[in-house]
Design brief:
This protein has helices spanning 2-11, 26-32, 50-55, 61-67, 72-86, 132-152; strands at 16-20, 41-46, 90-96, 110-116, 121-127. Helices cover 41% and strands 20% of the residues.
């Protein structure tokens, strides 16, 4: 899947950046494991702590107070924040609960993937099962699929 994402980004002359919480850099690692990734991957931030989400990625404190960090709203704000921070065409973010216990009254396996592109933004809610490593792995796979879908939907009149 990372190869497909890079292929689609190259077709569109587009770039991506990542903002990660529960995946702790695993999404960036998957994207950068592909030869030639530097042509389309600009960088990212691992914003594990709430303070980093707000200070580095610009997630508003009011949003965190109202919706929490395990929310679609936070995932979207993280994706927008990393996109703005790096100047990438697309931003993708992960936030959620990998375990071992619930967070913000949300069960283990609750994950949100935020995506922000030049003309649209969306959040995807996941309900994953398994141990911590399986939830992280499933989150990365889902984020890559969602990113490929978003990039693939880009206006066909554009290059690519």
């Amino acid at each position: 899947m990372p190869e497909q994402v890079h292929h689609l980004l190259r077709q569109r002359a587009a770039t991506v950046s990542t903002a990660e919480s529960l995946t702790g850099g695993a999404l960036a690692a998957a994207l950068t494991a592909v030869a030639g990734a530097s042509a389309t991957y600009l960088g990212g931030a691992v914003a594990y702590a709430t303070e980093v989400k707000t200070s580095v990625l610009g997630v508003p404190d009011e949003l965190v107070e109202r919706h929490g960090v395990v929310s679609a709203e936070c995932a979207l704000a993280m994706a927008r924040g990393v996109r703005d921070l790096t100047g990438s065409t697309y931003g993708v973010a992960t936030t959620g609960v990998a375990g071992p216990t619930e967070q913000e009254n949300r069960p283990v396996g609750t994950v949100y993937v935020g995506l922000c592109g030049p003309s649209s933004a969306r959040a995807v809610r996941l309900g994953l099962d398994g141990e911590r490593a399986a939830i992280v792995e499933g989150s990365v796979a889902a984020a890559l699929r969602a990113l490929a879908d978003l990039v693939g939907e880009q206006d066909p009149r554009l290059p690519g």
